[in-house]
Amino acid sequence: MADSNNKLGYVVGVDLGGTKILAGLFDSVLGLRGTAKITTKPQRGPGAVLERVARCVRDAVDEADLTMDQLRAVGLGVPGTVDPALGQVIFAPNLGWREVALKEPLEQLLGVPVWVENDCNVAVLGVQAAELKNKPRSVLGVFIGTGIGGGFILNGELYSGAAHTAGEVGHMVLQMNGPKCGCGGRGCFEALASRTAMVQRIKTAVNGGEKTVLTEILPDLERLRSGDLRKAFLRGDKLTKTVVEDAAGYTGLALANLANLLNPEAIVLGGGIIEALGEQMLGIILQTMKEHTMPGAMTGVEVRVSTLGDHAAITGGAALAMRLTQ
Amino acid sequence: MADSNNKLGYVVGVDLGGTKILAGLFDSVLGLRGTAKITTKPQRGPGAVLERVARCVRDAVDEADLTMDQLRAVGLGVPGTVDPALGQVIFAPNLGWREVALKEPLEQLLGVPVWVENDCNVAVLGVQAAELKNKPRSVLGVFIGTGIGGGFILNGELYSGAAHTAGEVGHMVLQMNGPKCGCGGRGCFEALASRTAMVQRIKTAVNGGEKTVLTEILPDLERLRSGDLRKAFLRGDKLTKTVVEDAAGYTGLALANLANLLNPEAIVLGGGIIEALGEQMLGIILQTMKEHTMPGAMTGVEVRVSTLGDHAAITGGAALAMRLTQ
Q1: Fold of the domain spanning A2-128+311-324
Q2: B179 in reach of chain A (CB within 8 A)
Q3: Which helix (H) or strand (E) holds B36?
Q4: Cβ A297–B91 below 8 Å, yes or no?
Q5: Is there a common fold for B2-118 and B129-310?
Q6: How far is B25 from chain A (nearest CA, A)?
Q7: In chain A, what residues touch B179 (CB-CB under 8 Å)?
C-alpha cells in the first residue's frame, strides 16, 4: 500500500544553473529523499547539458534508493526566460541559449512528463508550497546572489507576464545615473546590492588603500564568495560591514517599491548573499522598508528569509511537477 | 423591446474627487448618454458628500432623459484605499476620510446596488473595457496629474493586493536622495514627474531669474494647470520644454521598471498632465523605456495615451457596476 502511494508521489525537482545542476527526489508531501549534483558544462552545447540533466535526475532517484519506474514527473528551473507552454527556453544568457527545446527531449531521455519554468519562478513556488504551506495568495520572492532575480505569485497563481519576462526585480532602477549594471543600464538594484556589486565596491576600496580582513581570507578578491563576506562580517571587518549594511539598505528600498506596487502577503528572501548574511541584513531591510512604504502597504506583510536555502528551486521544481501531473 | 433591453443596461459611473464629483450615465454597451458634475465640499463631512454623490447620480440620469427606475447599478471610484468587499473607504487623505462606509448608505439613498473601488483601479478597468475591448490579460494604468497613481489588471483580474493598497506607482523611488516627496520620502516618481513636481521646479527656476512665458500666462505660478503647461510648451517656452521633457524621461524610467517587473500586454497613460501633453511626451517616454527594459520585456507591449481622458474613471465605474450586477 505504502509503495503504491509513493509510486504516485515521487517527483524530481531540478535546478539547472550556469555552473552546476542540482536534482532532488521528493515524496508526495514534498519531503526530500535524495539529491545529486554535477557540473553543467554549458560549453558542450544544449544536447550535452540535457543529457547531464537526465543523468543528474537518475542519480537523485538512485540516491533515494528508488528506481526510475517509481518516478512520476520532473520539474526543472532554468536561469532565463522560459515558455512553459512550449516547454522551451526563450533566452538564457548564463547558458548561452536561445530558443532551446527542453521538455520534449528530456521526456524522451527520461520517459516521464517534464515541466519547465524560470528558476526564480520555481523557487518562489517552492517557498510557497513547502515553507508557507500554500496559504498566502500573493508572495514575492527576491533572490540575491551573483545577480538578483525575482518571482511573483499573484492572486494565487504564478505570474510571469505577457512574454514570460515578469519578475525582473534586479533591473529596477533605484538610483538614476548610479553605478553601471551588467545590463547596460545604471543604478539598477542588481548594480547596488548583488554580490557582484559588493565585490566591485570592495575592490575599489582596497585599490584605494582601505584595509580589510578579506584580503587575508582570499587574496584574489575576484573570487570572493558570500561565505567569505560572512566570515569577514562576523570578524567585525569595517569595510565589509559598511558594504553589507549599504546593500541591506538598497534591498529595503527595493522591497518598499515592490510592497507599494504589489502589496503582497509575504515577501521571501533567498539566494547566496541572503543565505550567508540574511539575518545580519534583515533589521536594516525592515527598517528601510518601513521608512519607504505607504500607510497600510506593510500591514500584515510577512518579510522572511527563506529556510529552504539553495533547495528552494529543487523544491519548487518538485511542487510544479506535482501540481501539473495530476 | 428597446426599452426593456435598456432598462437592464443603464448604469452610472461616478468619479469622486477631492474637489469635484463627476457622474456619467452609460448604456449596456458602455455608451455615455449623459454626465453631471458638482463640487465635492469634503469639509461638510462624509454624510453630506454622499448626499452630493447621490444628487450627482440623479442629475446624470436626468441629463440622459431617463428616470431612476431605469437605473440598474452604480460604480464609484474613490481617491484612496478602498475595501470593495466591505464597501468602505479605508483611508482617503484628499477627502480626510478613514473607515467611511459608502456602499450601504449610497444604496439606501439611491435604491440600487452600489459598488466601490479605488479611482485608479476603476480607471484602468474603464480603459480595459471601453478602449481595449477586454482583450489584454494584463494592463497597467498610470495616471499623472497633481499626484501619480496606478491600477493593475493582472491575469485578467483587477489586482489590489493583500490590503487593497497595490498600485502605488507614484511612490516608487527612482532617485535615492532625490527631491522631497509629499509622502515624506525622497526621489519618488511623483516627486519627479507629477504636475506638483513640475510646478515646483518651474517656481525654483523663476525665483532664480529664469525667463518663461508661464509668468505671462499666469502670474501666480502656484495655480498653474496642465493646460497652461501645454500652452507654454506649444509656444516653444524653453523652461517648460526642459521640465516637460525631463518628466517624460522619468516617466519612461518608471514604466521600464514596471515593464521589467510585470511584463504587461498594455500600458495606458492618463491623468491631467498626459491629457494635456501626452503626445508631446510619448516619444521620450518610449525611447527611455527601450533603453531600460530587459530583452523581451517590451515585445508586443502596447504603450498608449488613453483616449478616455477624464472619463476613464466614470467609464470604469460603469464597467464595474455592469460586471458585478449580473
Answers
A1: Nucleotidyltransferase; domain 5 (3.30.420)
A2: no
A3: strand B32-39
A4: no
A5: yes
A6: 32
A7: none
Across the interface, whether the CB atoms of B261 and A261 are under 8 A apart is answered yes
* Range 11-50 of A in CB contact (< 8 A) with B: none
Instruction: Give the 3-state secondary structure of residue B137.
Output: coil
Question: In terms of Cα–Cα distance, which of A175, A147, A124, A170 is closest to A304?
Answer: A124
Partners of B154 in beta bridges: B157
Chain A contact present for B295, CB below 8 A: yes
pLDDT > 90: percent of chain B? 90
* Element holding B314 (H helix, E strand): helix B312-324
| Separation of alpha carbons A169 and A149, rounded Å | 6
Partner A contacted by B292 (CB < 8 A): yes
pTM, to two decimals = 0.93
Give me the pLDDT at residue A2, please.
46
Nearest CA in chain B to A140: B261
Question: Helix (H, G, I), strand (E, B), or coil: what is residue B175?
Answer: strand
Q: B36: distance to nearest CA of chain A, Å?
A: 33
Is 60 exceeded by the pLDDT of residue A4? no
Query: What number does CATH give the domain A133-307?
Result: 3.30.420.40
Rounded to whole angstroms, the Cα distance separating B149 from B8 reads 33
Is the confidence at residue A1, as pLDDT, over 50? no
Chain A residues with CB-CB distance to B265 below 8 A: 162
C-alpha dist (Å) from residue A104 to A44, A48, A108, B180: 20, 15, 6, 54
CATH architecture group of domain B129-310: 2-Layer Sandwich (3.30)
Q: CB distance B261–A299 less than 8 Å?
A: no
Q: What ipTM goes with this model?
A: 0.92
Query: What amino acid is encoded at B70 in this protein?
Result: Q
Count of residues for chain A?
326
Q: Are A144 and A159 in contact (CB under 8 A)?
A: no
Residues from chain B that touch A79, judged by Cβ atoms under 8 A, are none
CB B268 within 8 Å of CB B141: yes
Tens-place pLDDT, residues A88-104: 999 998 899 999 999 99
